[in-house]
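Please produce the structure of this protein holding SN-glycerol-3-phosphate.
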Amino acid sequence: MASSFQIYGHRGSSGTHPENTLLSFQAAQRAGAHGIELDVQLTKDLVPVVIHDERVERTTNGIGFVKDFLYEDLIRLDAGQTFSNRFQGTSIPSLKTVLEWASSTSLLLNIELKNGVFPYNSLEDRVLDLLTHYKLCDRTILSSFNHYSIQKLAQKNDKIETAVLLMEKIIEPWNYLQRVGAKSLHIEWQAVDEHLMENTQKRDIPVRPFTVNDPLQVSNLQKLGCSAIFTDYPAAAIQTL
Ligand code: G3P
Ligand code: CA
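Below is the modeled complex.
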């Protein structure tokens, strides 16, 4: 029987390739992932770019905040070398570049707006405009730890799926989601339990835990009724299906 349980490559196939790069997303697709997850921030000249941290040091050879770089300077940084010399010469992609490539695939997308530390005021509009341009709204989920941003997105576009990101258990998250206007829950996998699954399934709320790198846990979460998981190793997770 075909499974409706989905595997999303977290920051692409970030266990095997430099995270949030086109190479990583292409590796997740080759691995057979149903979807990819990626993080967006804004440059100084307001270009949405795909990078996890507010600062560039951990994943590139540069120094400073993403928000202080002009796009043309940011893409000169090497985002492959810190993972392995094998990937030297890889750039931070713009969201436009990733969406243009994704539109030629059938991948599902989860775009996480990294606007919890810096508000990046126009980020919601810029992301929605690009998704509309590439006709990707119907296969994209927008998520954020900044729930004000999720509320804003849900008010701007009630068709696109929005997800609240949570690190911990909270009381009655199904009621909280309703208050925010979000449709689904993305939650740290160890906070998933039967009580959560029983109550979300009853209300048709998709639950997608992150970041699940142990194949045994992938199977457990599938059995519990989760809709999908995020993993750094999509090839290994696909083997569990
Ligand atoms: O979207 C799930 C996960 O990506 C959230 O945490 O820190 O990996 O972006 P983080
Ligand atoms: Ca993320």
